């Protein structure tokens, strides 16, 4: 409840209860939260000791470890109909150059 109330005081989309609970558990146990919720994702800018990833960051980590190739980002978007933000894709391809 504390995180939900806090999220209403900062310039981000307010957190829903499930995301707030997940973030609290992750923070206390050094876990990574996986969500596509914008409020939850951007809350990590204001919170300490919590990592919040979207599918993009999961794929990026797999790519960095050499477990997938760069085309998997496009495959994921095509198969899930979930389009990554253009700025993320641009960063991905610019780092490879």
TrEMBL record:
Protein's name according to its UniProt entry: Uncharacterized protein
Species, as recorded: Saccharolobus caldissimus
Superkingdom per UniProt: Archaea
């Amino acid at each position: 409840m504390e995180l939900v109330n806090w999220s209403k005081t900062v310039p981000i989309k307010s957190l829903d209860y499930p995301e707030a609970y997940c973030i609290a558990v992750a923070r206390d146990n050094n876990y990574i939260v996986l969500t596509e919720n914008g409020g939850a994702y951007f809350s990590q800018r204001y919170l300490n000791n919590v990592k919040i990833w979207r599918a993009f960051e999961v794929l990026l980590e797999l790519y960095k470890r050499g477990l997938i190739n760069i085309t998997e980002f496009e495959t994921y978007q095509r198969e899930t109909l979930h389009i990554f933000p253009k700025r993320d894709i641009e960063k991905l391809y610019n780092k490879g150059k």
